[in-house]
Records
---
Amino acid sequence: MTTQHDRDVATLRAFNRVYTSRLGLLDTHYDGSPFSLSEARILYELKTRTTSMAADIARALRLDPAQVSRTIKRFSTRGLVVARENPAHGRHQLLSLTEAGQTAFAALETRTRAAVGALIDGLPPLQRSRLLSAAATLNDVFDGGAPEVTLRGLRPGDLGMVIARQALVYASEYDWNTDYEALIARILADFHDNFDPLKDDAWIAEAGGGMAGSIFLVRGDQAGTAKLRLLYVEPDARGMGVGQRLVETCIARARELGYRRMVLWTVSVLTAARRLYERAGFTLVEEAPAHRFGHDLVDQTWALDLEHEA
Amino acid sequence: MTTQHDRDVATLRAFNRVYTSRLGLLDTHYDGSPFSLSEARILYELKTRTTSMAADIARALRLDPAQVSRTIKRFSTRGLVVARENPAHGRHQLLSLTEAGQTAFAALETRTRAAVGALIDGLPPLQRSRLLSAAATLNDVFDGGAPEVTLRGLRPGDLGMVIARQALVYASEYDWNTDYEALIARILADFHDNFDPLKDDAWIAEAGGGMAGSIFLVRGDQAGTAKLRLLYVEPDARGMGVGQRLVETCIARARELGYRRMVLWTVSVLTAARRLYERAGFTLVEEAPAHRFGHDLVDQTWALDLEHEA
DNA sequence: GCTCCAATGTTGATTGAGTCAATATTTCGA
DNA sequence: TCGAAATATTGACTCAATCAACATTGGAGC
């Protein structure tokens, strides 16, 4: 039996093979280029970090200091690099490109850009955009550090994404049918059409360039009562405090807008959400069985007094 | 000034650098492994293509025949590979792994899988899923051949994706406001709630694992009249015949369901869609200016007689 | 039949990549 | 002040990569 983990490993290994055979040539020794791949990488480091030690380059590129030393020596004899003494530290030497080195680098850049450009241009638009968005994602995953969670207001496409993600996730996790999707589509259409900036609000949580969650604040049926609606956290973003931030932000805004009470409707199977509500001070005020989304569920109403809480 | 193309090239080159420094070690010479990266690649080819010539391997891996020859020779002396004469062709030799070769390969596989698995497990869930989906996309872009366009029925999440993509694309291309998003959210909620399999239908076009377009068939106000709604083609998938296939499929289904006439509502700025309608035989029956989605647009109604056409 | 050509596989030669070990030098902290 | 750690270099070695030369074989074309 193959687990998801096995399949993930296979995917990544296949990617590795594809990369080595199809893309690896991207940086390799173009016909007639005076630089090998390794030399080009070192040259790139010399250019970007204007003054640097050989040891810095070795660390950045995970190369052996011996190899860097020899490469720098070759560059020196070719007149591409000069090593100045560091007055502040006798053992460090400051490497920098000469005029000739700058010129050689520029020529290499031009050639590389042209080659990469040709590869991109050779792809049909769909493939190109898929390639580039995947490449950008990988850059961010490996170079972007820990993904930061940010909250923002609604933008075009957000309503649809909220509908799509919730419908898909609850269909796969709880086997809910598409009644749920239609329900939230209508809720969000109403939210937009009745939107009053003094009574309503909404937030999208973003992490790593994608949606990580969402929450909506809507006026309730009675004056002074707000409704918290459609709290959602992406499965992959769980455990990052996204839900708590959304709930807290929503409650704080409700207070700002002068609401005295907040209610929300949910169903009992959504246990992760339940914990968030409890933590925020909500209490369960009503429960009733209901047949929804193809299942026998238990409707719940939770409420929070906004006046007599911290 | 930097064009989009320049940025794309930079993205891909950054990806290349990130890959070489962060992921390149994936296949490299694990401590104590008896195989170098190049040897491991050749071993992999020997395993997967059960019998093969050295020349095949050289072509597959874009290696020099000389290098393959020498590597195979090393493998032979280590007892990992045997070369049998090809009775059909005296110059070709059939290479295959010995028992020892199979064992060595299996050990290498185990070690590699463990290393890749450790890398995956070391990532937080969000990063992991982003990495894997990007890797899968790249595999498909480079190994999957031309993306095939397929049509399918609705699944959970589709309504939301249709809303999200149309809202986002028309906002960026025509600067429409979010009224449009709310409008189609309501249209699709109604579509779901009133759905009758004998009168309504919907299709999602897929290409390369993502949505490439969509179209909806809905019963009209008058008996015998169908409405074509929400035709949409992803910008990246334009020019692939997606729109035409959607329209043709929709019309064919309308005929099947016994409709005698088909109408559609659109606005005049959607010129690409207009061409599709004309091509399918629709004729413009009504035009009226209207202020919609934050702009002065021209509403259009098109109609197609389903009885007296091919 | 024959010749020419292309493909296959091998070997030699050379340069660079990659790794390990040893060493000289310098700085910095205990 | 001493020793640890970092920097830079050199030697030694194996493999990767590339080019050139060459022998061998099968097949296309005559």
Note: The radius of gyration of chain B is 28 Å.
---
Amino acid sequence: MRQDIKKYKKLNIKLTPQRLAILAYLEGNRTHPSVEEIYRHVSKRFPSMSYATVYNVVNTLVKHKVVKEISIDPGKKRFDPDMHTHHHLVCIRCRKIMDIDIDYSLHIPEQALEGFTLLGNNIEFYGICSVCRNNDTHQI
Amino acid sequence: MRQDIKKYKKLNIKLTPQRLAILAYLEGNRTHPSVEEIYRHVSKRFPSMSYATVYNVVNTLVKHKVVKEISIDPGKKRFDPDMHTHHHLVCIRCRKIMDIDIDYSLHIPEQALEGFTLLGNNIEFYGICSVCRNNDTHQI
DNA sequence: CTGGCTGCAAATCTTTTGCATCCTG
DNA sequence: CAGGATGCAAAAGATTTGCAGCCAG
């Protein structure tokens, strides 16, 4: 834990055991977990953890730019600890989300921007993963 | 109304007054309204309209591919009657959504797809719109 | 020791569901 | 006139809030 503490010291937020547990779960996590998934995992080793704390912590982490909030799953937020530029490939059947680590530099013509200052882009690729395609052979 | 009825006949769904009112509101609408916005607008001329009906109708329209559900606003679905390929430019301050009518053909290398069948992509550009940038001159 | 954080419960918001009634086709 | 659609209320799911007590700095 000492290492985590050192790593997150620069955030200038109190490093409570709950926060460290959530940070440890998110560290390197590529599953794009929802609040429910974070709660389910972390509360195993931390039974007193409450949903409100998970919400508080992830909102704090989003504010401090330690994790990104992603709006891929309709009606539910997911979180991604990978802050470097990347995109997502989503299976329209099982909603599994994979990372695509390619940097596409997409241009928008000045006149289409209508005064907008463009800061970046998120690309959501969608398709059908191999597992779902194989379960599908009966109806294409 | 006769014209709308003719136009939507091919959907083979019952064209109730509620459905026609919602379809009329969505027709050509570029504001990417949420259910609440649809309800607020349509219930003015249709006071008996209930939220459940708006949900029923938009879900039916999504199933029949008359409108697209978009997950840009975290925790809330928005709907877009423009079914042709296009992308969105979102203001991170006021959440206004503009359409970008450009077709980007983005390639993913075979080995990154891991067996995925790629069907398409949605690009969310983000930035700051001119209105919000001007309100901002005091801080940056 | 103090302000920020946790945990609990209640409140709020979004969406879905059950069911009696209605009305389009 | 039958089956699907509406309207209402209740339920379910996601998130926020208020507040007393706790604990990291």
Note: Strands of chain B lie at 68-70, 78-80, 87-91, 97-100, 117-128.
